[in-house]
Structure formats: structure tokens, C-alpha cells
Design a protein that fits this description.
The complex is a heterodimer. By secondary structure, chain A is mainly α. Helices cover 77% and strands 0% of the residues of chain A. Chain A folds into two domains: 1-61, no CATH class; 64-245, no CATH class. Chain A has helices at 9-28, 34-61, 64-84, 92-113, 121-152, 154-162, 167-192, 200-207, 212-241. The N and C termini of chain A lie far apart (62 Å). Chain B is an alpha/beta fold. Chain B has a domain at 3-89 and 154-216: P-loop containing nucleotide triphosphate hydrolases (Rossmann fold, 3-Layer(aba) Sandwich), CATH 3.40.50. Chain B is built from seven helices and ten strands. Chain B has a six-stranded mixed β-sheet with strand order 6-7-8-3-9-10, with helices on both faces. The two termini of chain B are 16 Å apart. Classes of the chains: A mainly alpha, B alpha/beta. The interface between A and B is medium-sized, with 17 and 25 residues.
Chain lengths: 253, 217
């Protein structure tokens, strides 16, 4: 099998044409996302270039503390980004940090104990990124769902409080719906994996020349891992976040 | 008679926006107090303060001889029950709503008690399994009312609960409330209804956030 895994600068330059197509469509159709596309492209180039060099260094020196530092940085960034989607929920950063840390680290430890991955930077860092980014998206969706439900169902929540419900009893239907929302992309992708999408991990292995039947074993592991991690992260984030919609007198803020 | 509510200089002015000012009011146990006044004058705010759904920005509210703040909020709200104007019903069926007061007390749903409660407001026991989307406004209001009454609160706070009801349904609600009051339940009701104002035992006017007059009969 021939592996042409090197993307030349010329090929990358030609790929810029695809970005130009997206920009032209945006411009012609007055969609208004031109600025976001340009910022996204510039950020992707800078971030990926930096991370490429950082990963090369981390893999080369292969130090435990450096690998753990990279894991911590990924989790911190994921929590910071999830907080950005919380739209004013108090303590959203701390809640996100706890949810993403617990979900990511627990999943990571289980994978290492099960020898599904080895504790080497070339495996730990990409898997951490994969888990943390999925949990970040899930917690962000949870926050958005909670904000909108507490807004739309304000009257019902007030009535439950007035009837003598405690905070959990007044919020539980909203919390459950938010957890469902947070988990739905992972569940949807688990349902369609292989049929609609060939996910990154599996595609990467096939690109690298691994037998597809072996690549799917990894993908199955990734699917299970993401299901576990996003459900854990969503539950922790939602159960910690719903209390932030109330004050100390058990009243809606 | 003992005092159940004692309000001293109660004000509610979130972010320096005065909604209620200098409210001094005493309500006796078993009293039926009617509150009236123009829309936006602060009547609902006063009821929400009594229900602990809001906290006064100054002044004190005493309930049964102790400051409101001394009570556990959940226990308090089960004793002092606030029934909303245009209530929202939960879940899918009437049973979901009448099961809620049992669920929050961690008790099994007593269907017989719920059917009996439907009878208090002239609704048939068969209504229990009816979808809430198929109910009329008057039926919804009556179900919300008995949702508050299943565990016999000590005080019932009614926020214009008869507004928009036809005269027959109003009569049913009036009869139930009078019965409860006769059995010793303290009732504090907001109304714009002239008949209810004329029939009031004790009447308070709230205008522009201030208590204007207190007529006891």
C-alpha cells in the first residue's frame, strides 16, 4: 500500500481555493460569516502549526510531566471554551473544569488500565483532545439548553417552587432535557458511524495503511469512550449548573 | 385570634426601582383578606413576598411570630401556598399535575384523594387521565387550585385566580374558598372583581406600591 501522507505546500495552497469558494458564497448570499471564516482559517493555521511543533517536541522528549501538562492545558482550554457558551451562568468555568476533568481523566485512566492505549504522549495527547473536545461540545449544549429552558419555563419552575418543591424537584425536567441535548450529537454519531461518517480516528488509521478491520476496533473503542465521557460530563455539568439559576433564598434569579 | 402575618415597613425595590414601599400590615389566622388596586400597583409582588418567592429589600415579614428568614423555605411554601394567575400545568395529563404534590413529599400518588379533590371544584373523577392540552381555561385554573390544596396548606395566597372564568366556574371556586376559610384556612386573595370586592371580609387597597386603605368589616 502506498502512503502519500505528506501534504505539500502547493496542495495546501490549492486547498485555500476551497476557502475562497466558501467566502464567495458568503459574500454573494449576504450570509455575513466572512469575518468568522477568515478568523477561523487564520486561527486553525496558527493553532495547528504551533500544536504540530509542540507535539513533535513532546513525543520526542517523552516525559511524563510534559504529557500531563499537555493534558492539563487541553482540559483547561476546553473548560474555558465551554464557559463561553454558558451565557452568564455563574461559576461556569469551574463547573466546566470539573465536568471535563472528571469525564476526560476517568475515561483516559480506564483506557490505560485496559491497555487500550499506552501512556505515551503520541497516544495520550490525541485521545485526551478527542475526549475533552467532545465533552466540551456536550457541556456547551447543556448550558445552552438549560438557559433556554429556564427562560421559557420560568412560570412552571416558579409554580413548582411555590408548591414546595426543592431546587432539584423544580429543575429535574430541565436538567434531564439538557443532559439529553448534550449527549445527542454523540448518540447520533454513534448511530450513524460507518454509515454516514468514517470518523477521524478510523480514517486516520486507514490513511496510515492500517487494515480497515483493525481500524474499526479502534473506532468502536472511541465510540464507547465518547459515549461514556459525554454522558459523565453532561451529568456533572447539568447537576452543578442548575443550582446557579437560583439564589440562596431558593428563588429564581 | 393570633397573628399569622406581620409586615413592618416592607419594601421591594430591586435595582433601586421601587415596586412596593413602606407596607405595614397584619393578617390574623383564619382571616380572609382581599387585596385590590390598579394593575401594576404591586399586589402580586406583595403576594410573592408572602410566598417567599421574592425577598423584601427592606423591612421584615413575620410569619406565625417568627421572621420569614427563620423558616426552611420548602417547608414554609408547603404551608403558605401561592396559586398563580394563569397557571401553567406540568407534564401531559391532569394526573401528572395532581401527582406532583405527592412526588415532592416523596409519597405515593393517592389517586382516590386526587379524584375527591376534582370533586371539590365540580370536575369529574374521569378527568384524571385527560390530556392538559384538551382542557379549557377554567378547567386548568381549577386543577391548578386543587394542586395547591391537596395537602391543606395553612395559608392560601390567590393571585386573581377567578379572572377570566365564567360566572358558574367563579361560583364553584368562591364556594370552595369560603368552605376552606370556614374550616380555618387563612386566605389572602388579589382581585379586580367587583363582586368579590363587595363580598370581602377585609379589604386592602394597594396603589402605586403603597398600602392606601385597610377596611375591616
Amino acid at each position: 500500500m502506498q502512503n502519500n501522507l505528506i501534504v505539500s505546500p502547493t496542495a495546501l495552497g490549492l486547498a485555500v481555493l476551497l476557502v475562497l469558494i466558501a467566502l464567495i458564497i458568503n459574500f454573494k448570499e449576504h450570509i455575513g460569516l466572512q469575518k468568522d471564516i477568515i478568523i477561523g482559517v487564520v486561527r486553525a493555521v496558527i493553532q495547528l502549526t504551533v500544536v504540530g511543533y509542540v507535539l513533535t517536541y513532546i513525543i520526542k522528549v517523552d516525559r511524563v510531566w510534559l504529557t500531563l501538562l499537555m493534558v492539563a492545558i487541553i482540559i483547561f482550554n476546553a473548560a474555558y471554551n465551554a464557559r463561553g457558551r454558558a451565557n452568564g451562568i455563574p461559576h461556569a468555568f469551574v463547573i466546566s473544569l470539573v465536568a471535563i476533568s472528571v469525564a476526560t481523566l476517568l475515561t483516559l485512566v480506564m483506557l490505560i488500565i485496559a491497555h487500550a492505549i499506552a501512556f505515551i504522549p503520541s497516544q495520550v495527547v490525541p485521545i485526551t483532545g478527542m475526549i475533552a473536545s467532545n465533552v466540551m461540545v456536550a457541556t456547551g449544549l447543556c448550558y445552552r439548553a438549560m438557559n433556554s429552558s429556564f427562560h421559557d419555563q420560568r412560570q412552571a419552575v416558579l409554580e413548582k417552587l411555590a408548591l414546595g418543591a426543592d431546587l432539584k424537584q423544580a429543575s429535574i425536567s430541565i436538567v434531564r432535557a439538557a443532559i439529553r441535548t448534550g449527549m445527542s450529537p454523540t448518540i447520533d454519531s454513534a448511530k450513524t458511524v460507518g454509515l454516514v461518517s468514517l470518523p477521524g480516528m478510523m480514517s486516520g488509521l486507514i490513511f496510515a495503511g492500517v487494515d480497515p478491520t483493525k481500524a474499526i476496533m479502534y473506532q468502536i473503542m472511541v465510540t464507547f469512550m465518547l459515549l461514556g465521557a459525554t454522558s459523565l460530563g453532561s451529568v456533572i455539568a447539568c447537576y452543578a449548573a442548575y443550582k446557579q439559576f437560583y439564589n440562596a433564598d431558593l428563588q429564581l434569579r | 385570634m393570633t397573628t399569622i402575618f406581620d409586615l413592618h415597613d416592607v419594601a421591594y425595590a430591586p435595582e433601586q426601582q421601587p415596586i412596593l414601599q413602606a407596607i405595614n400590615l397584619t393578617v390574623e389566622t383564619g382571616e380572609f383578606l382581599t387585596i385590590t388596586g390598579p394593575s401594576g400597583s404591586g399586589k402580586s409582588t406583595l403576594l410573592r413576598l408572602l410566598a417567599t418567592l421574592l425577598t423584601p429589600t427592606s423591612g421584615t415579614i413575620e410569619y406565625a411570630g417568627k421572621p420569614q428568614g427563620d423558616y426552611d423555605k420548602v417547608t414554609y411554601r408547603r404551608e403558605v401556598s401561592y396559586c398563580f394567575q394563569q397557571p401553567s400545568l406540568f407534564g401531559e395529563t391532569v394526573a401528572d399535575n395532581l401527582a406532583f404534590p405527592f412526588a415532592i413529599r416523596k409519597q405515593d400518588f393517592d389517586e382516590d384523594k386526587a379524584k375527591e379533590a376534582l370533586g371539590w371544584v365540580d370536575l369529574p373523577a374521569t378527568m384524571l387521565n385527560k390530556k392538559i392540552t384538551s382542557l379549557s381555561g377554567g378547567e386548568k385554573q381549577r386543577i391548578a387550585l386543587i394542586r395547591n390544596l391537596l395537602f391543606s396548606p395553612r395559608v392560601l395566597l390567590l393571585d386573581e385566580v377567578t379572572t377570566g372564568l365564567d360566572s358558574d366556574t367563579k361560583d364553584i371556586v368562591h364556594r370552595l374558598i369560603r368552605d376552606l376559610n370556614a374550616k380555618g384556612m387563612t386566605i389572602i386573595a388579589i382581585t379586580h372583581d367587583e363582586g368579590e370586592i363587595a363580598a370581602a371580609d377585609a379589604l386592602v387597597d394597594i396603589v402605586a406600591g403603597r398600602l392606601e386603605a385597610h377596611h375591616a368589616k
